[in-house]
Amino acid sequence: MARFVLERVIAAPPAAVFASSLDPGLHLRSMQRHRETMVEAPAGGAFTEGSTVTWRARHFGIPFRLRSLVFDIDEPHRFSDRQIAGPFASYLHEHVFEEHPDGTLMRDTVTFRSPLGPLGRLVDRLVMRAYLRRLISERNDALASEIEGPGRTLSA
């Protein structure tokens, strides 16, 4: 299994960063470049314990569909999502939010495995880890930009 961890400090309280991370609309805005859409939206329009969502996007010029499940929600500290159908043999994304003197330390841990055994492991090592790391980093940039927007302060 391939794995990476990204950490970022966002100048906002953990509850605000947590809530924004569970916002499907913000996720879509952060992935506009990949023309990501929701084929199946979560019931009620927001991610909650047990929510499922089906995403459609284009990566490497190839259209993909990925269905994921949101679980293990512990507001405002953590939640996870995992692929239940899609291109990966396995995909788990753990989101953790901790208080930090400058706001919130947001930690993303992504563990994944591409299909096709040894060939998939080679793809993960040579391409996929860096690609996914960049994708999650783009999402985090968009999240931070939206939360920390112009004129916002830590107490906002």
Q: Structural class from helices and strands?
A: alpha+beta
Helix content range of the residues, please?
25-40%
Instruction: Report how far the terminal alpha carbons are from each other.
Output: 39 Å
**If you compute it from the alpha carbons, what radius of gyration comes out, rounded to the nearest whole angstrom?**
16 Å
Beta percentage is: 35-45%
Q: Tell me the strand order in the biggest sheet.
A: 1-7-6-5-4-3-2
Q: Secondary-structure element order, as H and E?
A: EHHEEEEEEH
The coarse overall form would be globular
Number of helices: 3
Explained architecture:
With 156 residues, this protein is an alpha+beta fold. It has three helices and seven strands, in the order E-H-H-E-E-E-E-E-E-H. It has helices at residues 14-21, 24-30, 117-148; strands at 2-10, 37-40, 52-59, 62-74, 78-85, 90-100, 103-113. A seven-stranded antiparallel sheet has the order 1-7-6-5-4-3-2, with helices on one face. Strand 6 (90-100) and strand 7 form a beta hairpin. Helix 2 packs across helix 3 (117-148). It is globular and about 45 Å long.
What is the fold's blueprint, element by element?
Elements: E1 2-10, H1 14-21, H2 24-30, E2 37-40, E3 52-59, E4 62-74, E5 78-85, E6 90-100, E7 103-113, H3 117-148
Antiparallel strand pairs: 1-7, 2-3, 3-4, 4-5, 5-6, 6-7
Helix pairs in contact: 2-3
